[in-house]
Specification:
Elements (H helix, E strand, L loop, with lengths): L8 H37 L1 H5 L4 H8 L15 H15 L10 E5 L6 E4 L3 E5 H6 L3 H16 L2 H5 L2 H13 L5 H10 L9 H19 L5 H11 L16 H11 L16 H7 L5
Parallel strand pairs: 1-3
Antiparallel strand pairs: 2-3
Helix pairs in contact: 4-6, 6-10, 6-11
Length: 287
């Protein structure tokens, strides 16, 4: 019988040592993969909370090239744009916005009955909706609602988790914005991808009313805006997304009546009409 050759002790030790090192390497590699994947899942599922950590300046820099892409947007030096910006500034003066957050209001010369906020602190108000608003107070409530969306970073969250995650990675690792983020901004022009949830609309309703009440110290005029919205349904005929109409208005009206308006002082206060110069611009047929 042939005798089995035994390995020297040092060869056995080296073989065992190699196996141990391989096992340690595999264990460590698997552990790293689990941690990375787990962290990625955790980040992705909590992206709404992380979106608030993206500096507002980053939003502004990304949105700047596309802020004027909407057809019909008038220059901010126009009378109506200047007027609405002044009203917005009054509301922001009594609102606790994060440091560095700014809001720019754009007038859109369009028949569409529309109003929406988007990335970078931009608010777009169309002639169509301004013509239907009964007074300045209703416009103030509309602006307060859109400012609330911006305050809570709803437009950024509306871009999608992938875009927000890419921005977070860019910020954490000091890299330039990814092609994915730039492509979304370029293709969408900031306008077609923003859809706010029912809950986000309710949050903007309640925060908007708080801003309104803090400024006027009464609630008169708030319901007039929502009655107009409810009666017109704000059915946009284009592919653009108009955030104010993207939810169940009946549910929002119920929430407004039950949970917030009743907490405001019910004293009667006169609402403020539009300035004659603005009214003449909006309704030239009725000088």
């Amino acid at each position: 019988m042939e005798k089995i050759q035994e390995l020297p002790d040092y060869a056995v030790r080296e073989s065992v040592s190699s196996i141990v090192h391989i096992r340690k390497f595999l264990t460590l590699s698997i552990g790293i993969i689990v941690v990375v994947v787990g962290s990625g899942i955790a980040v992705f599922t909590s992206i709404d909370e992380l979106a608030t950590l993206v500096p507002f300046e980053m939003e502004q820099s990304l949105s700047r090239p596309y802020a004027s892409t909407l057809p019909g947007v008038s220059s901010n030096t126009g009378m109506i744009s200047t007027y609405m910006q002044a009203l917005s500034n009054k509301l922001m003066a009594v609102q606790d916005l994060p440091a560095g957050m700014q809001v720019t209001v754009h007038y859109v010369d369009s028949n569409e009955v529309s109003a929406f906020s988007t990335v970078g602190g931009h608010i777009f108000i169309s002639r169509g909706i301004l013509e239907k608003l009964p007074h300045e107070n209703a416009l103030m409530m509309l602006l307060a609602h859109e400012i609330a969306h911006i305050k809570y970073r709803h437009p950024l969250k509306g871009l999608g988790k992938g875009v927000v995650a890419s921005l977070m990675l860019s910020m954490l690792f000091g890299t330039s914005y990814s092609d994915t983020v730039d492509k979304v901004f370029h293709d969408a022009g900031l306008l077609t991808v923003l859809k706010f949830s029912q809950q986000q609309e309710i949050v903007a309703d309640e925060e908007g009313m708080r801003i309104y009440y803090r400024y006027y110290r009464h609630r008169n005029g708030i319901a007039d805006l929502y009655r107009m919205v409810e009666s017109n349904q704000l059915q946009a005929s284009t592919d653009l997304t108009y955030s104010f109409a993207q939810s169940d208005m009946s549910q929002r009206m119920k929430n407004i009546k039950q949970h917030f308006v009743k907490k405001m002082l019910n004293k009667q206060h006169a609402v403020i009409p539009f300035p004659p110069s603005i009214k003449a611009k909006l309704h030239p047929e009725n000088p």
